[in-house]
Design a protein that fits this description.
The complex is a heterodimer of chains A (223) and B (111). With 223 residues, chain A is mainly α. Chain A is built from eight helices and no strands. In chain A, helix 1 runs parallel beside helix 3 and helix 5 runs parallel beside helix 8. Chain A is elongated and about 80 Å long. The two termini of chain A are 24 Å apart. Chain B has 111 residues and is of the alpha+beta class. In chain B, 50% of the residues lie in helices and 15% in strands. Chain B has four helices and two strands. Chain B has a two-stranded antiparallel ribbon. Classes of the chains: A mainly alpha (223), B alpha+beta (111).
Chain lengths: 223, 111
Amino acid sequence: MLEFNNYPYKTPNTLVIKLLNWSLPDELKDAVIGDLEETYFSKKQQGQSELYLTLWYWRQCLSIAYRFMPTTQRGFIMFILSLLVFASMMIFGMVMGAHITAFIDVPSAMLVFPPAFFFAIAATSWREFLFAFGCVMSEKKDFSANEINASKRVFSVLGNTAIWCGGITSLIGWVAMSSNISADEFSGVFGPAFAVSVLTIYYGAILKLICYVAEQRISHKVN
Amino acid sequence: MKEKFLGEFEQMVLLAILKLQDSAYGVAIRELLINTIARDVSVGALYTTLERLEKKGLLTSSYGEAIAERGGRAKKFYVVSGQGKQALNRSKQALDTLWHGVQLAQGGHNA
């Protein structure tokens, strides 16, 4: 693609171009995006409003993504579908087992997810971290062995840190419970306190599972 | 091999490309369809059809030069192949045969 720095118009949003580049097959990218740009500029010269043109561009872009994604991003769609199936099965299990609010605890989540992400970024790098997520979303299979190893390392560190954070904070909870609950109140307090304390292991295990699937998904993308 | 007939939109696209001759690319095909038969198709719908026809061997394509009006991107020009012309002829003959002896009164009811 040529660069035209002095061209008078700019496309509505770089996000649209990113979505098009992601969803279109390589052999059609120039043709389709070029057609959209040409029509956009032609409509603009005819005096169409900016809002109308932006909406038109987005509508065309979403229609293109909807039509081409099932062929160009099949693996990623299956990955998302498998996560949705897993999430729905998990919610089904939670609803059947107890009230769903018993499985939601913001402090427990804060003890697992942010530290896991920070550890993963610290152990790798921000660039590798973002690249790993891009690698999962991409259908390309021409990544170098180094890129794949770095991306796998990101998910490995993220998943393992999550499960370790979950385990350690559960232990902290058990120590706190044991040192604070007296024999008189044990039967009434132990159950709810124990349930909350094991939620961190549960959250860690969920993140570990997702990271494991992501790691497996990128492992075969070496050129 | 069993010969397949073309869908209505596939025929329209192939005919538009034949009419445009050497200047058949996405924008021109869409404009021709709007101006001649008032059919405003989305870019996505047009390109999925073009891609399908090309995979079937009914079209061939080649890229032109990148130009500024397209943000520095090239046009993809399409040409109907011999196989494509045969398929168009076959579909036309089939439709002509079916239409033979059928007359519709105004409003679409059989006369």
